Amino acid sequence: MNTTMLRKSVLGIAGLAVAGGLAAGPLNHDTPTLDTRPVAAVQADKPAADTLIPHGVQGDQSRIDLNDEQTGNAKAIIAATKKAGMDERAAVVSIATALQESKLENLGHLGDRNDHDSQGLFQQRPSSGWGTVEQITDPEYATLAFLKGLKQVDGWQDMPLTKAAQTVQVSAYPDHYAQWEQQAADLVAQHWNS
Length: 194
Known about the structure:
mainly alpha; 8 helices; 0% strand; globular
């Protein structure tokens, strides 16, 4: 028997043993004693996961470590979302969009690396009517402008995040917003009530 066939046979037997063990589960073991001590209550003021990610995440998720400035920008987006009278889901869409567009960095003009005249957290363009450079590099203004566009998208609340963000942003890479949904939801859960 060659080594490939032997390896497949061994792996097959091991797989059956694991599957059998999983299927049999607790029937082959003593029942564990339940710990009846009180458990710390879940913080009720944090938004529920189904509010933050109602459709589940799409595709592989990206995550970056944030510095104080980036965290401050996430908090500014949350504050502007509240000011606009919108909910936690709108904040998730906004933060995921800013993570994709700028990694939550309030970018000025990047010279040769600039995408046209795009600037700020959302890479909004003065030439496209988003506002002046001074306005779109103000986190509150930029977020309120993004949210104004989001409000105009019929049914945005029922769309996957990437479709809602793309409808507002009109990006050359429409599916890239989805990769930031989990980190955006985590930031909203952490900072919505802080």
